[in-house]
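To whoever is on call:

I kicked off a structure prediction for a single chain this morning and the downstream step that reads the tokens threw a length-mismatch warning. I double-checked the sequence; it's 309 residues and nothing unusual in it as far as I can see. Pasting both halves so you can look.
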Amino acid sequence: MLFLSDDAIAGALDYPGLVAELDLAFQDLAQEQAVIHARQRSRVGDARLNTMGGIWKRRGVAAVKCYTSVAGQFSFLVTLFDTHENRPLAVLAGAELTKYRTAAQTALLANKLVTQPLNKLALFGAGFQGRAQLEAIISVLQCEEIAVVDPYVSIGWCEEFAKSTGIRTHLSAAEAAVRGAGLVVTATRSAIPVFDGSWLDDRAVVVAIGTSTAAGRELDDVTMDRASSIVVEWKPQSLQEAGELVLWSRREECTVKIVDLTELYSADAMWPRDGIVVVKSVGTGLSDVVAAWLAFDRLDKKHPSEVSP
């Protein structure tokens, strides 16, 4: 069986290309031309086993991502299948693939939801995934300032990022970062809210991607209460896994509209444009299918003798 490494996948993928493919896949999901295979979780002691996947008719592929979590450390593999010939195509390492698809989805949704010039972006958590979020967002949106909230990130890293991108990038306290930010992205593993929702600008877009369990949340009740709309990927999964929704104390009595991508990509849908918009991402298997197909397809075209069975 062909195996594609993280290094090979990182060399094959780029954010604008993946954003475009995800856009197509979510259009197809709304037209029942793609399907999401919901995440399944099993646990014994400190060891967890998780699976998720999907089918994408347009590209003739299906995939399943299988990953373990032991003591907070993750290990990912993705198996990609050809649905036309009904055969496996490859096994892909999943760390870079997961990084790319998560960040590209944020970029896709931010590009659709941020309606004003993005003068300031606030990022909570600048680790492996947080830095990918920045790279993906600035590949599709122009930004003047990035305020980073992370006690483990150095001033030097911010200076290097600013030098390489031309965007003023600096460390910040939480309140100073959030105030005046048109886009706030949280990419932490925090189980408790990372900022006070009262600091948000009245037209801010907030994207929370750091947690995918019902027991943790990066956003507080104030943020959720102030939102005019809450966007999730897929309600059957998100309403069970998103701690921001599960732990939201006033969810049942609030009139905030919760919509998913199946609804937003339907023919007559209107993307939310007014007030605070919250995007809560827990990840879907369809995004893994898209990223796996794109990496395989590009490597197959570049080095067909090495990729094709």
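Update from on-call: the warning came from a stale cache, not from the record. Cleared it. Sanity check on the structure: The chain has a mean pLDDT of 95.
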